[in-house]
């Protein structure tokens, strides 16, 4: 059975639109560059928060060991969440903030991963510190800090990622271009701040 010529014309029109605007170098740079600049600034802010944790780093041995891991874990999980939300929005599975199973499943999965990996991270931080002959505040202390920081920052960033992804799409931006770098940056700032607060709480216990 021969294909309708109109189908070919429609496909060509779609391809021309996609290559002409959506996937053009100019449109990608225009959308991504401002958020990448903000991401660079965000990294500096996270560094400033770390510089203010001098006392906690000295009082809690091993905290410095788990700090980069907490940031990396949070960035990976939150960026993946942002990417999945962007894909779901493009597919029409998420159109607004409501009790949407797709949205709830993505957020729930992100928080569960945060809990599991934070627990493992705290234990590994303690074991690696001991294995290198360094002093450690203990597996319980480091794990408690990692779990508190991981879950709290995960919850905050899940809410931000949801509003951000839907908002950017409604304003005509491609969530895949802007959500991931933005959430990665906010993840560094929020995670560092929550790590700081978690350390403060543990010291006060």
Poorly predicted segments: none
Share of helical residues? over 70%
Q: What is the 3D shape?
A: elongated
Q: In sequence order, what are the helices and strands, one letter per element?
A: HHHHHHH
Number of helices: 7
CATH class: Mainly Alpha
Bin the strand percentage. Answer: under 5%
Assembly category: single chain
Number of domains: 1
CATH architecture tag: Orthogonal Bundle
DSSP E strands, number: 0
What is the first-to-last residue Cα distance? 76 Å
Q: How does the helix and strand content classify structurally?
A: mainly alpha
Brief summary:
This protein has seven helices and no strands. With 205 residues, it is mostly helical.
Account of the 3D structure:
The chain has 205 residues and is mainly α. It has a single domain, classed as SLC41 divalent cation transporters, integral membrane domain (Tetracycline Repressor, domain 2), CATH 1.10.357. It contains seven helices and no strands. It has helices at residues 5-22, 25-51, 54-59, 63-90, 101-131, 139-170, 175-204. Helix 4 (63-90) packs parallel to helix 6 (139-170), helix 4 (63-90) runs antiparallel to helix 7 (175-204) and helix 5 (101-131) packs antiparallel against helix 6. It is elongated, with a radius of gyration of 21 Å. The termini are far apart.
């Amino acid at each position: 059975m021969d294909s309708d010529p109109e189908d070919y014309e429609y496909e060509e029109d779609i391809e021309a639109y996609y290559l002409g605007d959506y996937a053009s170098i100019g449109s990608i740079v225009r959308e991504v560059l401002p958020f990448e600049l903000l991401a660079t600034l965000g990294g500096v802010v996270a560094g400033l928060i770390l510089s203010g944790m001098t006392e906690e780093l000295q009082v809690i041995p091993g905290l410095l060991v788990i700090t980069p891991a907490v940031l990396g874990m949070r960035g990976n999980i939150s960026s993946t969440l942002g990417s999945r939300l962007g894909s779901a929005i493009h597919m029409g599975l998420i159109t607004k903030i409501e009790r949407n199973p797709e949205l709830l499943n993505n957020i729930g999965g992100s928080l569960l991963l945060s809990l599991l990996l934070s627990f493992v991270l705290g234990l590994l931080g303690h074991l690696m510190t001991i294995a290198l002959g360094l002093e450690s505040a203990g597996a319980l202390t480091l794990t408690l800090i990692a779990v508190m920081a991981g879950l709290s920052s995960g919850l905050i960033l899940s809410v931000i990622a949801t509003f951000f992804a839907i908002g950017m799409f409604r304003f005509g931006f491609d969530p895949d271009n802007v959500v991931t770098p933005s959430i990665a940056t906010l993840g560094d700032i929020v995670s560092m701040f929550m790590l700081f607060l978690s350390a403060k709480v543990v010291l006060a216990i």
